Amino acid sequence: MPRHPGAGPRGRAERVGAALRLITLSAGAVLFLVPFYLLVRNGLSTNRDITAPGWTFFPTTLHFENISTLFADPAVPMLRSMVNSLVISTVQTLGTLVVSALAGYGLARIPYRYANVVFGLILATLLIPAAVTFVPTFVLVSTLGWVSDLQGLIIPGLFQALATFLFRQWFLNFPQDLEDAGRVDGLGYFGVFRRIVVPNSAAFIAAIGTITFIGSWNAFLWPLVIAQDSDSWTVQVAVSTFLTAQTVNLSQLFVAALFSILPMLLVFLGLQRFIVQGVQSTGSTG
Amino acid sequence: MTAAPEPRAAARPGLRRRLAGDQNRTLWFWAFVGPFFLGLLVFVYVPMGWSIWLSFYEARNTVTPTVFVGLDNYRDMLTDPAFLSSLGTFVVFAAFIVPLTLAVSLGLALMLNRVGVLRTFFRSVYFLPTACSYVVGALIWKLSIFNGVRFGLANTLMRAVGIEPVAWLSVTQPPWYWLVIVSLRLWLQVGFFMILFLAGLQRIPPVLYEAAAVDGAKPGWQTFRYITFPQLRATSVAILVLLLINAFQAFDEFYNLLANAGASGGGGYPPYARPPLVYLYYIALGNQQDFGHGSAGAVILAALIAVVTVLQAKFLGFGRRGDQ
Description:
The structure holds two protein chains of two kinds.
Chain A: H1 8-43, H2 47-50, H3 65-72, H4 78-109, H5 115-127, H6 134-143, H7 150-154, H8 161-172, H9 176-184, H10 189-197, H11 202-218, H12 221-226, H13 235-243, H14 250-270, H15 272-284
Helix pairs in contact in A: 1-14, 3-14, 4-8, 4-11, 4-13, 9-10, 11-15, 13-14
Chain B: H1 15-20, H2 25-54, E1 57-58, E2 67-68, H3 72-79, H4 81-113, H5 119-127, H6 134-145, H7 153-160, H8 177-202, H9 206-214, H10 221-231, H11 233-248, H12 252-258, H13 276-285, H14 291-323
Antiparallel strand pairs in B: 1-2
Helix pairs in contact in B: 2-14, 3-14, 4-8, 4-11, 4-13, 5-8, 6-8, 6-12, 11-14, 13-14
């Protein structure tokens, strides 16, 4: 793209175009931020303020006590749900990283006669979206007695063909020279993997990790199916339950929702570089 | 098989070394791939097989059924108006959300790609909803923006310009609920696909634009039509497939936007606008606990998705080769 718009009509059109772009992007940005603003506004308002006929864009008083009321309410297991979500997402992310990185490396680097068959069976599961198998998986998990149990929420989510596929692609492009150097030093497959490949893939592992974590935290259908008693609810199930309940306490619902996305917003703003990289690696192999 | 350990004359290796040594590649392969593959077998392949088996049985409230019904469950599902209308719901939903997401995310990526200083800021803003869950998105849309009563944001704005308030989610004529559902998903997923398009744009070699400029192509539509768009073809095809699969799996926002009190029991969800997964959820896990019909439905859906994906890849793949 021309960096320095020259003089004459062309340069002027260029400047008008740039201004139009900025205006459009800014208007869009405001629209995209409004929902977040509403979440905060409603979460820190009283029910009466939310339902007031005169809509105030900037409420004059913010009710931070809504936060303590939410976490003190025994009828709403908010803290418990958040802890559940944190445990599930963390274990699922670590587990997925270990299991998928190992499998991806094996597929990329260890010659084996039937490797292609195994890889084909893994790829085939990408065609069948996991959401469609939720009925039979539920049947299996309930037979194992894992309903309303954290392991029922965690373990079936550990085996993600997409993560393994992405790791395989990544390791295929890993510089072979580095690995050879490790082999000369007497390392076996596992030694090379642990001491050379993993440390040099930290950014990619972080990318897959953050995406897995956000996906796991935001998952809804599976927790809805499995977490049947409130002790095993995740935040998404908890918020959804209040949302579809008979009587809705609006400000409490919004403040609960606010807290359910706060950890993700922090992860997102802190690790955005990795997320963008991870999304790009998802897309470029698609 | 190749697993026979090689005998070594000198320095007899210990058992451990012989078993786990580098030469035993089969063992190493399974040490690395085994845990994942076993999990896949247990949690994907076994349920799939089980589902196919269950789909041939009358299985209400039980997963160890005894009454074999052959293809009856499939026939019931394929003639069930509610199941068919759930497929129709998916078609309508996809017809709106797929082209809209494609166009908006491409448009944003093109604009962002030409913005200098504020690029990172805008990218973050448009990408931010990706961090938000569909549950929370549905909550904001349902109870704050498109609330059917006066204090909803949309109705407040409309009243300001003299339009009557609209009951967004509870009327089917006119079907305003589609606007609510589609705009929510658009907000949640546009940023993700914008990032994919941005990555695609950055992979286009600048030489192409320089060559086009030399050949007299005007920047703007001509460059886009002859350089950018063809170069983005692979990215666009991948995004199209992803968007369709995502739309097929729609559950969270439909469930949360439209379900009312007591929804977990199967009541309170209106009969309109049930996408396939929501319908299956109510059949298999609602009051009926009908695993036979639920499984048959899941098998039909899985087959449909597989067929559509393969056809699409083939069709678009052929098109691509034909162009070159």
